């Protein structure tokens, strides 16, 4: 870009900014519910400042060091917008609407010099296109971070550890037990065992849709780790069809305490701890 | 994959193992690896360093923080100039050992890592590389 | 060279491992402990590894050895206080420490040892009463 063009744009920054903000405000995709006008002006101002400084450097290349501040501002902005729930279209409008403002200015300045106008427009166009790409890339990255965080949250929420009695923990597992899930279950369980000093953990798999050899392996690993810590593990909630698959697949669960229901697992846990539960002599309300 | 930082340690004596383990742990903590992840990494490292001491009288261990697809990880490389392994496939099986160990070293280290690579040439030496990612299982 | 202290508590031996072991230190512990079992005719060995951040296959083998050797000399071995991360890693490594009893903490380990040893012969029980 010619140095006089850069200087001209710099001199007219205020007009440029006004036109740009105006463009954004008048666009139908403006999300005034997510971002205030002042904030929008502030963001536009910051980016424009950085951009005008970089334009003075001659060669227009987003990847060059001179443009680093520009890409930094853009990346931060689009990651924030992704988190706030902006759509891709709304996010890309930010840079796209700057084009219009630039073109109007250039057209005004180079009315009588079409060759220069053309050259400068193409250069600026290429630059803004690359900036759009940076915006999109980081926007998607921001979204992916959101997804990753949610995945983590889901796997943590879905594996509660319940203290059913002094020294007895229960873990109802609901949903498919894959490697990632098993890891979370195992870590939660062992941590709780240490914290509560519980000697028995009941893994209830009533809510697990299918048990294949991989899931069984995960269960066996969990039981082994529990035993290494010095606690015992009972697996309950084994439905008829699960028992059938386990035998058909030739999975050996003989070294593990298994029970059909949580109630019978609890009974076993009581007897292991030497606890007796009896009906009271006196009349009860039930 | 890019390397963010790198350090090379020489392993010659047994206490070097402890020092190396602590270093590896430091790296894992630096990138925010979970407790279980750290423990798996240093356990794998311990197995591999021991192999290097026992079968090759020591060698070089390289610690690196690497990044791929925006995810950080710790890469450990163990290079020795020992006798090499005749049958790598056999050495990777559980329970196989030419020494008097449990034969869990190599296959165990592989299970504890997210990525595992072994290159060995008889008479020249062995190089084992492992990676554990920050969010690896 | 460093040495791991072994405490005698009645008929049990107690070892608290406070540092990460390298191989020679672990071997020395195995040796000292077995000699101690033989000398004191201990009935139980309690190894507290709550401060240990790593148990690899060598350390696992040492623990297994101590348990088997003590067993021949009629003493039970209990490993207590294993960290969750260590337990998960051991399972992944493929070591389940067969023959080694485990407990959550020293207190529960003691209780387990007393249960394992079980009965006390009649005369011995009387003798005990007298002493107390």
Q: What can you tell me about this protein's structure?
A:
The complex is a heterotrimer of chains A (286), B (137) and C (132). With 286 residues, chain A is of the alpha/beta class. Chain A is built from ten helices and five strands. A five-stranded mixed sheet of chain A has the order 1-2-3-4-5, sandwiched between helices. The mean pLDDT of chain A is 86. By secondary structure, chain B is α+β, with helices and mostly antiparallel strands. Chain B has a five-stranded antiparallel sheet, covered by helices on one side. Chain B has helices at 14-30, 35-56, 88-91, 105-112, and strands at 2-11, 59-68, 71-80, 115-121, 125-133. In chain B, strand 4 and strand 5 form a beta hairpin. The mean pLDDT of chain B is 89. In chain B, helix 2 (35-56) runs antiparallel to helix 4. Chain B has a single domain (2-133), classed as Histidine kinase-like ATPase, C-terminal domain (Heat Shock Protein 90), CATH 3.30.565.10. By secondary structure, chain C is α/β, with parallel strands linked by helices. Chain C has a single domain (6-131), classed as STAS domain (Transcription Regulator spoIIAA). Chain C has helices at residues 23-40, 57-72, 84-93, 106-117, 122-131, and strands at residues 6-9, 12-16, 44-48, 76-80, 101-103. Chain C has a five-stranded mixed sheet with strand order 1-2-3-4-5, sandwiched between helices. In chain C, strand 4 (76-80), helix 3 and strand 5 form a beta-alpha-beta unit. In chain C, helix 1 packs parallel to helix 2. The relative contact order of chain C is 0.15. The chains are: A alpha/beta (286), B alpha+beta (137), C alpha/beta (132). Chains in contact: A-B, A-C, B-C. At the B-C interface, helix 1, helix 2 and helix 4 of B face helix 2 and helix 3 of C.
List keywords for this structure.
heterotrimer; A: 286 residues; alpha/beta; Globin-like; Transcription Regulator spoIIAA; five-stranded mixed beta sheet; B: 137 residues; alpha+beta; five-stranded antiparallel beta sheet; 4 helices; globular
């Amino acid at each position: 870009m010619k140095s006089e063009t850069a200087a001209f744009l710099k001199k007219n920054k205020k007009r440029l900014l006004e036109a740009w903000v105006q463009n954004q405000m008048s666009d139908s995709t403006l999300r005034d519910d997510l971002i205030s006008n002042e904030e929008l002006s502030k963001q536009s101002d910051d980016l424009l400042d950085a951009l005008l400084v970089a334009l003075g450097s001659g060669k227009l290349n987003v990847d060059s060091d001179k443009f680093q501040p520009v890409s930094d501002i853009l990346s931060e902005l689009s990651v924030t917008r992704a988190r706030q729930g902006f759509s891709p279209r709304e996010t890309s409008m930010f840079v796209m609407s700057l084009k219009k403002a630039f073109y109007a200015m250039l057209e005004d300045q180079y009315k009588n010099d079409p060759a220069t106008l053309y050259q400068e427009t193409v250069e600026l166009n290429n630059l803004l296109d690359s900036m759009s790409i940076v915006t999109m890339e980081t926007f998607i990255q921001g979204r992916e971070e959101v997804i990753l965080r949610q995945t983590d949250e889901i796997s943590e929420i879905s594996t509660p550890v319940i203290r059913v009695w002094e020294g007895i923990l229960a873990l109802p597992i609901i949903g498919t037990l894959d490697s990632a899930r098993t890891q979370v279950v195992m870590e939660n369980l062992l941590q709780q065992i240490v914290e509560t000093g519980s000697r028995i953990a009941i893994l209830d798999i009533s809510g697990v849709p299918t048990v294949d050899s991989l899931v069984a392996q995960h269960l066996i690993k969990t039981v082994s780790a529990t035993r290494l810590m010095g606690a015992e593990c009972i697996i309950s909630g084994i439905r008829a069809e699960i028992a059938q698959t386990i035998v058909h697949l030739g999975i050996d669960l003989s070294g593990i305490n298994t029970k059909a229901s949580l109630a019978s697992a609890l009974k076993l846990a009581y007897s292991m701890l030497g606890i007796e539960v009896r009906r009271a002599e006196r009349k009860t309300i039930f | 994959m890019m390397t963010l930082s790198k350090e090379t340690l020489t392993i010659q004596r047994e206490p070097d193992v402890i020092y190396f383990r602590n270093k590896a742990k430091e790296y894992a903590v630096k990138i925010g690896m979970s407790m279980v992840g750290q423990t798996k990494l240093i356990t794998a490292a311990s197995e591999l360093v021991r192999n290097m001491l026992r079968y090759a009288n020591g060698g070089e261990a390289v610690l690196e923080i690497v990044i791929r697809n925006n995810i950080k990880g710790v890469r450990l490389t163990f290079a020795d100039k020992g006798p090499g392994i005749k049958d790598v496939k056999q050495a990777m099986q559980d329970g196989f050992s030419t020494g008097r160990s449990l034969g869990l070293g190599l296959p165990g280290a592989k299970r504890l890592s997210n990525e595992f690579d072994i290159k060995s040439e008889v008479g020249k030496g062995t190089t084992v590389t492992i990676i554990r990612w920050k969010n690896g299982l | 060279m460093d040495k791991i202290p072994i405490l005698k508590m009645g008929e049990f031996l107690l070892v608290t491992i406070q540092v990460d072991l390298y191989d020679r230190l672990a071997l020395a512990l195995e040796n000292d402990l077995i000699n101690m079992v033989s000398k004191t005719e201990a009935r139980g060995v309690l190894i507290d590894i709550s401060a240990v951040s790593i148990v690899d296959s060598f350390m696992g083998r040492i623990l297994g050895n101590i348990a088997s050797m003590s067993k021949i000399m009629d003493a039970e071995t209990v490993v207590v206080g294993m960290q969750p991360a260590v337990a998960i890693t051991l399972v992944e490594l493929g070591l389940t420490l067969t023959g080694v009893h485990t407990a959550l903490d020293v207190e529960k380990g003691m209780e387990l040892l007393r249960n394992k040893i079980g009965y006390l012969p009649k005369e011995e029980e009387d003798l005990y009463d007298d002493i107390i």
